[in-house]
């Protein structure tokens, strides 16, 4: 099942995801006049930053709410799945932040990215990597697993290691220029409850409302000793996989 997104809640409490990826745009180095595809553009916050460099940006996403928010920024945002890209040698670069880990079929995505790039084009991306949100996942498995949700539904993201993702990129013909896992404990000013409500919205919505509150309380209590400091500041145990690869 697809994760349902609420762009206004995401904008209020999930903005840190895009803000922390600012240096990914430095890696992308968008140039004036370039055509750039933003894969999983969300509400278009980063697409807008890329467009400010003078690039022509096309954003794709599967959330109608996010696409509406991106269009409201004046962006060319399209309701297209990353698994059914129909672009042929149109882009100088494909960019993606915090989106690849939501896409079930990476091989289809990589084949589409390859086709979308002009020869010589670059694919610059960051997503959750191996070990990402490890503590949060254990709490989700304990609390939602205990309520009968199947493991595959709780573990609905792909967090690849460097070796796995490099091999996949290379098997599609990409030349990998850089790839690394970066631990990035990330401050959550709105707290863990908000994080869980945004990023596991679909599963939580299936619980009756009284039990939803109880489940959230249980997860927050489990996570507090490891992800909340003694001054009450929450963080998420993020690990990012970042890479730059080229279609020769
Ligand atoms: C991430 O950006 O790493 C992420 C966010 C929400 C759920 C899973 C992963």
The biggest beta sheet reads: 7 strands, mixed
Distance between the termini: 36 Å
Low-confidence stretches: none
- The number of helical segments is 12
**What fold name goes in the CATH topology slot of the domain at 7-133 and 157-188 and 237-246?**
Rossmann fold
CATH architecture classification name of the domain at 7-133 and 157-188 and 237-246? 3-Layer(aba) Sandwich
Q: How many β-strand stretches?
A: 7
Structural class, please?
alpha/beta
Backbone CA Rg: 18 Å
What order do the helices and strands follow? HHHEHEHEEHEHHHEHHHE
Helix content: 40-55%
How much of the sequence lies in strands comes to 15-25%
Name the overall outline: globular
Hetero groups in this structure are:
benzoic acid
Annotated CATH homologous superfamily of the domain at 7-133 and 157-188 and 237-246: Vaccinia Virus protein VP39
Numbering strands along the chain, what is their spatial order in the largest sheet? 3-2-1-4-5-7-6
Instruction: Give the C-level CATH assignment of the domain at 7-133 and 157-188 and 237-246.
Output: Alpha Beta
Query: Can you give the mean pLDDT?
Result: 94
Describe the structure in brief.
Helices cover 42% and strands 24% of the residues. The chain contains 12 helices and 7 strands.
Question: Can you characterise this structure?
Answer:
- With about 250 residues, this protein is of the alpha/beta class.
- The chain has a domain at about 5-135 and about 155-190 and about 235-245: Rossmann fold.
- The chain is about 40% helix and about 25% strand.
- It has helices spanning about 5-15, 15-20, 20-30, 45-50, 65-70, 105-115, 135-145, 150-155, 160-170, 190-200, 200-205, 210-225, and strands at about 35-40, 55-60, 75-80, 90-95, 115-130, 175-185, 235-245.
- Helix 7 (about 135-145) packs antiparallel against helix 12 and helix 10 (about 190-200) packs across helix 12.
- The two termini are about 35 Å apart.
- The mean pLDDT is about 95.
- Benzoic acid binds near residues 17, 101, 133, 157 and 199.
């Amino acid at each position: 099942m697809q994760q349902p997104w609420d762009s206004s809640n995401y904008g209020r409490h999930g903005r840190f995801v895009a803000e922390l990826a600012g240096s990914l745009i430095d890696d992308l180095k968008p140039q004036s006049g370039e055509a750039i595809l933003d894969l999983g553009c969300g509400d278009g916050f980063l697409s807008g930053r890329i467009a400010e460099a003078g690039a022509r940006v096309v954003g794709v996403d599967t959330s109608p709410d996010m696409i509406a928010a991106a269009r409201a920024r004046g962006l060319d945002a399209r309701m297209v799945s990353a698994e059914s890209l129909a672009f042929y040698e149109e882009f100088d670069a494909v960019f993606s932040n915090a989106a690849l880990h939501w896409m079930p079929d990476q091989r289809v995505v990589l084949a589409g990215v390859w086709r979308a790039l002009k020869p010589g084009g670059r694919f610059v991306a960051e997503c959750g990597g191996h070990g990402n949100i490890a503590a949060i996942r254990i709490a989700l498995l304990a609390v939602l697993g205990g309520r009968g949700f199947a493991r595959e539904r709780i573990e609905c993201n792909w967090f690849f290691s460097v070796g796995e993702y490099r091999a996949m990129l290379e098997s599609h013909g990409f030349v990998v220029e850089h790839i690394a896992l970066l631990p990035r404990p990330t401050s959550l000013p709105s707290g863990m409850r908000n994080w869980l409500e945004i990023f596991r919205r679909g599963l939580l919505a299936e619980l009756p409302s009284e039990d939803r509150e109880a489940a959230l309380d249980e997860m927050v209590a489990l996570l507090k000793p490891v992800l909340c400091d003694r001054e009450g500041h929450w963080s998420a145990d993020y690990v990012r996989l970042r890479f730059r690869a080229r279609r020769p």
